[in-house]
Amino acid sequence: MSDISKDLALFNELVEALINEEEENPVAERIDSDKLYDSIDLSLNESAMIDDAFKTVLRNVLISTPKTATNLFFNQLFGGRQSKAVLGDLLAVMLNNSMYTYKVAGPQVGIEQEIIRQSCDLVGYGSQSNGTFPTGGSMSNYMGLVMARDAKDPNCRLDGMSKAMVIYTSKESHYSNAKNASFAGIGRNNIRYIQADSKGKMITEKLEEQIIDDINKGFIPTYVNATAGTTVLGVFDPIDEIADITEKYKIWLHVDGAYCGSVIFSEKYKHLIKGVERSNSFSYNAHKMLGTPLTCSIILVNDKKQLHDSFSNEADYLYQTDGDDFNLGKTSFQCGRRNDALKFWTLWKSVGTRGLEKIVDQQFELANVALEYIRSNPNYTLYSFDDSISICFNYKNIDPTTLCTALYEHQITVVGFGSFNDDTFIRLVTINANNKKQDILNFFKVLEEFVEKTPNLTKIKEMSI
User: Fold this and answer.
1) Is 350-464 a CATH 3.40.50.1220 domain?
2) Which residue in 464, 454, 461 sits closest to 403, CA to CA?
3) Taking 60 as the threshold, does the pLDDT of residue 256 lie above it?
4) Sign (positive or negative) of CA dihedral 40, 42, 43, 47
């Protein structure tokens, strides 16, 4: 038996052990960070490790790693496991193609381009649209910003920054906007954070007021970032209203749909991004709402010329055959790039567009289960709103940071907390479409039982003021 056959057999054995462990213990036993190296042998040594010992170490690592696919993981903006997507990712690892040329990627180039073409159609972009697969949502936002910068000042690509550019985003937008402004040479101090309303949406009147003020001061409005699914509340900025403003002042509009942009697949919920076809660029993460393994991020552009102008660079040693449409490195930020498209394609191919729609709709249905439960129980205080898969609440006025930490440390469930305005609360994310109604209700059951058994949890003092 070859080494790869032996290792694949070991892989299957370990995966079976992991799946059994997930069923028996949905929350991994926590190892204190200061005890990690004493708990598991993570050392790298000069001598080889014998097979049985190697297998034992791998099993210990798997069992101790946080379990993100179980019905008690609600902490991140991803979760669950779509088996056909896992299959695609495993095949991508075995193939080990880099996605910069047709010469080394072959049909995988067509797979990526088909996903991009279909996605552009769903968004409503025209025949000149295109896209690429960045390394994540932050990189998607960065690429959108770079294209906006270059469109406003084409000489910037050669001569560097020479204009006083400013960019705009909601106060509730993703933290990557600040980093990206720094990376792009625009500067963190040249971001204008626009006030959000009581539901967390960007206030368009405030946006236009700020743009006018900047123009009067000699600045050059360059880029507006709208969010389709804010990180905490999961709300959608009013894209159509924002597009009215960006078109009026000739500003690039990027829609950051990393969290919830996958509503493009849902007839029922795509109204939440009404006007997205008017944007210059749009991004979404299939590793979030659609459940593919990390990472799987897509950025689309209404005019593919902008993608080529900002990211193309000649390299005779690399681009030796076929045309630009098949040499994806010409429109990618990076050169060597793993195949993130195949896992999404195997999922989409197997379940169809309607199957992806069901995955998205299921998450909203689970959110409605949680909302109904909270609204019918006087021990809960609700802070979030309809049409969101982020359910924000507090229970019995218990400090949410204390409660979330205790639930995690006692291996009860994994859920996080967030803040909006002056409120801090538990944030339950119903992004695992494999969950059912009883899984959501079970979450509340285990939370309540834990609180009942743990009477010394800290109450929020401010609530009585």
Assistant:
1) no
2) 454
3) yes
4) positive
The pLDDT-based confidence of 288 (bands split at 50, 70, 90) is very high
pTM over 0.70: yes
CB 168 within 8 Å of CB 210: yes
Domain boundaries, the chain: 3-66, 97-346, 350-464
Closest by Cα among 314, 346, 326, 342 to 104: 326
Give the C-alpha distances (Å, rounded to integers) separating 146 from 142, 276, 307, 309.
Answer: 6, 20, 9, 10
Fold: same for 97-346 and 350-464: no
Omega before 295 cis (within 30°)?
yes
Distance, CA of 146 to chain centre: 20
DSSP of 242-309, one letter per residue?
A: HHHHHHHHT-EEEEEETTTGGGGG-TTTGGGGTTGGGSSEEEEETTTTT-PSSP-EEEEESSHHHHHH
Helix axes 341-375, 83-95, angle to 10 degrees: 150
* pLDDT band, very low/low/confident/very high, at 368 (cuts 50, 70, 90): very high
Spell out a b/e string for 6-45, using b for 16 or more CB atoms within 10 Å of the CB, else e: eeeeeeeebeeebeebbeeebbbeeeeeeeeeeeeeeeee
What type of residue sits at position 399? Answer: D
Residue 335: the pLDDT is 82
First-to-last C-alpha distance (Å) of the chain: 71
CATH, domain 97-346, list 3.40.190.10, 2.60.40.1730, 3.40.640.10, 3.40.50.2300: 3.40.640.10
Q: List, for residues 6-44, the tens digit of each pLDDT value.
A: 999 999 999 999 999 999 999 999 999 999 999 999 999
Q: Which two tokens stand for residue 336?
A: 């060597």
Cβ atoms of 430 and 362 within 8 Å: the answer is no
Report, as an integer, the average pLDDT of 417-439: 97
Q: Dump pLDDT digits (tens) for 133-186.
A: 999 999 999 999 999 999 999 999 889 988 899 999 999 999 999 999 999 999
> Nearest Cα to 144, choosing from 23, 211, 227?
227
Measure the CA angle with vertex 38, ends 33 and 39; round to 5°.
Answer: 80
